[in-house]
Input
Amino acid sequence: MLLQQLSDARGISGCEREVREIIEAAIDGLVDEQRVDTLGNLICLRRARRPVEGRPLKVMVAAHMDEIGLIVTGVNKDGTVRFDKVGGIDDRILLSKQVLIGQAAVPGVIGYRPIHLIARKEREAAPDLSRAAIDIGATSQSAAERLVSLGDPITFRTTYEALEPGALRCVKGKALDDRAGCAVLVELLQHDYAIDLYAVFTAQEEVGLRGARVAAYGIEPDLAFVLEGTICDDLPKGDEDTSHVTEVGKGPAITFMDRSFIADRRLVDLLVETAREEGIPYQFKKAAAGGTDAGAIHLSREGVPAVTVAVPCRNIHAPVSILSLNDLENTHRLMAAALQRIQGSLS
Amino acid sequence: MDLVAHLKELTMATGLSGYEGDVRSLVQKAWDPLVDAFETDALGNLMALKRGEPAEGTPRRAIMLAAHMDEIGLMVTGYEGGFLRFTRVGGVDLRTVLGQEVTVHGRRELIGVISSRPPHVLGEQERRTAVPTDKLFIDTGLTAEEVPHLVQVGDLVSMRRETIALAEGYLSGKAMDDRAGVATLTVCLQELSRLRHGWDVYAVATTQEELGLRGAIVSAYHTAPDAAIAVDVGFGAQVGVSDDESVEMDGGPAIAMGPNIHPSIYELLVQTAKEHEIKYQVEVAAGQTGTDAWAIQVAREGVPTGLLSVPLRYMHTSVETVCLRDIQRTGRLMARAIVALDSADVSAPML
Amino acid sequence: MKDMIKTLVEAFGPSGRESVVSALLADLVRPFVDEVRSDNMGNLIAYKKGSGGGLRVMLAAHMDEIGLVVSHIDRKGFARFQTVGGVSPLTLLGNRVRFANGATGVVGWEYWLQKRELPKMEELFIDLGATSPADAPVEVGDICCFDRPMVDLGKRLVAKAMDDRIACAVAAQTLIELGDTPNDVYAVFTTQEEVGPRGAMTAAFGIDPDVAVAIDVTDTGDTPKAAFMAVELGGGPAVKIKDSGMIAHEGVKDWMIRSAEAAGIPYQREVLDAGTTDAMVIQTTRAGIPSGCLSIPCRHIHTPSEMVDHGDVLNSVRLLKAMLSEPIAI
Output
């Protein structure tokens, strides 16, 4: 299954090759043109296959290939490995995790002080990551340096698996943000549209929407959709009556605004109308939190109308995320139907 | 026996305190060719007897070797929507379980993930504080309607962790505390099968150590040994832990001394290590050692007791890391010490 | 059964001073058992011989309650004290306490109406209405407990010492109703649970049973803002799976659940985060005794107003009878 392959693939920001190669294999025969630009974006064109008056609209649909992770910043004298975070990670989720380092996927673990040696008071505070390192079993700096190098990318050692089958059909894996978007985007290339569909698998989203920025500049799209795995905060909150941002199982989440952009109203309306008429469940992302490639794309050149549609992911930016295959499929259904409705120009 | 495969199998099995059955079967299978008889008691301790051959005119005497087979973990306390609430079984540092995969042992084994909230919506203050227990949940991906059919209050939850080999003969996984000790007993029994010893050996895989040495209390009473050695894990040197809190990794067993330890057993272990050139280190425990040795020492009329610790990093997390060479050294030292018992005197009182 | 409960909970019996309760219980159960005796720790052991082929079963319900022990009587006749068991200063202020000789006092605080924070134990004293040590009705070393009559709210009963006299009542009623059983039943009314558990330790050693079940109260999670717990008042007896002192023996737990389900008795599964029972020490007696605990849900534990549900109490008796009347497979 493509999502499984994509989730298990390793690719922090700036090191997206493994993911890109999986996608290249998956889109074989589905696109008319494809190229990889200097940042590593995979830019594919599937030309309009349905009749259209005049020039078909150039519609960019983007999903980012990169994932959050860690990077090697040094090796200690005792052979343990220092690291920094790539992308927005909560320090508290790093303890006691297995990781894989570099091309050779050297296994390591992030250990911490044993609870027995930690004062009760200290246990109430977040862990101090300056007292943690990655243990690869090396017993000296030189031994460690034979196995890992400065700048080696580090990913979580997590395997994609289906959870107990239930109504939500949940799966777990790493990097569902945004391999979920990548998987949907590949699927979208199976349909025929009256638009020139630029499917862009972007690089470096997690460190500042950097791939999308240059890709959009190059493509000069008329409008853009961004496919994401997005924030979901639907844990029980007790008496607290606050936003869940999104909820797993409630359908694709449409962004009206986040920290990077305000969605184009016409595109939001198109999605909502499509969902209603096609009977596809949908939800709004109920918080202006996080940012997506749309933030970079909508400011490209003279500006591009853009919107983001996302699959809710629990435990986002953590070693193991969870999503519902229902949401994934409904995101695909919604996007396919919406793209098929686009004819000529945007009213 | 392949020690890596043995330890991998032991650590990846589930055996939370009070529910050690699966691990016990594995241990029994591994020890079966090495011992003469097995017995399991009411608390689930596995007691394996390997008979010695005492010299003419010497009484039968027995030494108890103890390593605990239980592991720490979690237990379901209820539901909230489709999410599970839980409590700890033993001393889990809940700060290390965020984003952790677990196995929920419900009517079926379910994969679960301990939820973490999206960092995007957390305030700075929140990220600096440990997540309070009442905000921790296990997510099985099931709905509020589905969960009660599969999960009940009191169901066990274990860490879902593959044991992996690191570089240089290091192995990392959950439950190394104290399956590393159990594997040490396996090594010891293998060594003994090639040696002649007069003392009977009770190799005991104890239960419920993490809940207060409870298996050792009753198994020491039952076997009523003349001497005992417990094997547990000790704090190995690691980032964030000072030298005086830890022992050296790959430095061999830490032989304990202090009020929990009978001086003649300590001497026996040190002399044996020297004689057979087995790398060892010494660890001083000023009082409660927190190990089975503490319970065994006061069984019945008192038992001369020693303690060996296999150095281990990141104790009570799911990435506990040991060096295989330390396990081999510890097992070998125990076997040689048992042989040396024949010419030792452990009947003297404490100092 | 309410009369029996009232008599038992109102009786005086802090840890180490259980003789009044012991005498009451001995009289209650004597006609229904083969032997009643006490051991050196003051445990009352009621033995009912089985018809054969069964197991030796030990039941343990503790007779003692929490209390205070006088440590000093000052020049004006006020008594200073230390606690016997888990007493909180929160529940003491203004409360009445009673001694074995009937003397009654009121707990006062040095800083009453002066300070707003919680009282510390050493700032509290017992006002006996005396004016000097000479006319104080008690001496150093005397132990007292809360002084409260039971209140019958209909469905619910409120009293001091529901922990654990309600279990004593349940055990006694079980003996009264049990009838024929293949099992040798040792119902032990234990001492000094609140400071140990201690009585159960020696009783279990002496009896050396095949299996043991403690009967005790457990917390509930059904009051406003209570710490999360799945047990509620009125939901039936709770089958203990884990508390902070032990994991119930799997076989005993299963036996309890099997019996409840077969007899159609409502029950709850209990995981208790703070607190333990006699079963903790019975389990590690000698070479180990399979032990579990039948818990009676109780609110406001260790206050003078512990509340239980009458239905839970009756169902606890039913469950014990169901468990004991058949051959036991563990």
